[in-house]
């Protein structure tokens, strides 16, 4: 048993010095088309109250209620504040209020190397599960709009991109732990019992499961874009007193 433990620690030390990343390409169960996939999505805006003073922060909340399909979408499309990039504010006369500061959409393009050696241009993605609701807050509308005393109407449009494939990178520690599991399973030393091997493998697998829950980022190959859907929210009345 002591021999096995020594070998285990030595192997663990060696593999931690050879950390790397592997990306595997996976395909989402695709809907017939983007229009069908997004036809049941409902986006809605809300505020905590209908009237604010000129000194108050004006928070907004966006709810994205998904339909019956799991969807792969860019993180920036539904991440605060970039999800609010196409916000529309009009005054009581129907005039559009121009923002004093635009809500920018950050670029998230990166290049990853797949295990077959191909370079794949990707953006960071998120999986919107079917029949779930994504909540996106905006801390203060007045950070972007100069709102004088009066009545306003707020609506939001989202140009939601939908992708077919995604890359999921294994965390370097997961790769190391999987390699160690294989080494343990291949041990033929008569002094190492099957029970000891099972116990060591179970411990390592628990570490893998914990890491995969913690590091669950996915990346969308640019070339796997299915299309884009335009989603429009309800209109929210707002008064500045």
The coarse silhouette is: elongated
| Helix-and-strand structural type | alpha+beta
Measured as a percent range, the helix fraction is 10-25%
- Supply Rg: 25 Å
**CATH third-level topology of the largest domain:** Immunoglobulin-like
Number of strands: 14
Number of domain modules: 2
As residue ranges, the low-confidence spans are 1-20
Care to describe what's here?
- The chain is of the alpha+beta class and 241 residues long.
- It folds into 2 domains: 1-24 and 172-214; 31-166 and 216-241, Immunoglobulin-like (Sandwich), CATH 2.60.40.2970.
- It is built from 4 helices and 14 strands.
- It has helices spanning 2-16, 34-38, 172-186, 194-214; strands at 22-27, 42-46, 51-52, 60-65, 71-74, 87-91, 109-113, 119-128, 133-138, 150-163, 165-170, 218-221, 225-232, 236-240.
- Strands 3, 6, 10, 13 and 14 form a 5-stranded mixed sheet that branches. Strands 5, 7, 8 and 12 form a 4-stranded antiparallel sheet that branches.
- Strand 7 and strand 8 form a beta hairpin.
- Helix 1 (2-16) runs antiparallel to helix 3 (172-186).
- The longest helix is centred in the C-terminal third of the chain and has 21 residues, at 194-214.
- The radius of gyration is 25 Å and the shape is elongated.
- The model is unreliable at 1-20 (pLDDT under 50).
